[in-house]
Description:
This protein is an alpha+beta fold. The protein has helices at 5-26, 43-47, 91-102, 117-126, 183-196, and strands at residues 50-52, 61-62, 85-87, 106-112, 148-155, 158-159, 214-216, 219-224.
Amino acid sequence: xxxxxxxxxxxRGVLAAxxxxxxxxxxxxxxxVPGGDVPPVSPQAAAAGFVDVxxxxxxxxxxxxxxxxxxxxxxxxxxADARCLVHESMAPGLAKAADELxxxxxxxxxxxxxxxxxxxxxxxxxxxxxxxxAKPGPYARSHEAGRSVDVTIAERGQLVDMGTxxxxxxxxxTAYATDGVSAAAQANRAxxxxxxxxxxxxxxxxxxxSGGLAVYSGExxxxxxxxxxxxxxxxxxxxx
Length: 240
Ligand SMILES: [Zn+2]
């Protein structure tokens, strides 16, 4: 589904807001003990094997777009205090990615992590195109299983140029797009893919990977962890 003109103008506003919020978060004092200030996850989240990503990547910038109106649906889909929960199988790959970026002076920015099933249903109702929004099914996989994340890179408090904003439903948002994507943005996307894949081979052994996170070719910001594509029972885990 092509975006309407109104959608595009909304997204431009979103980019500015995200840049500012990322800058504020990155400017916060560093040196926190890993996971030291992070409250424990809910019993349901713990039972599902979920961890708060801040215990894995202590310098992560958490900017959950779906907890704000600044998303393609236009209204908050998560509670304001939603947190970035991921399945523990993503932890080694995310830690390695953050290490690699940190050595370059950069930090990971998380736009989305675990996504409750009812939110996926609302998203598909808003954009019923499976090329851009996963069609909800009778099982959980990817974000619904806490095994995929939407991320970008912040450098000196600013989001790097990736060529499009988050949830830009255009061909330029595909991971390996070249038309309309500057050489610098293509290089930044490659840098993100390299860092996210640092934990091991991508896609070589789906469901039993060594920890590396693989980009979804349809969206430069979406990365799947080990076993992300496996169909699992739908979860009922609160996101806050
Ligand atoms: Zn995603």
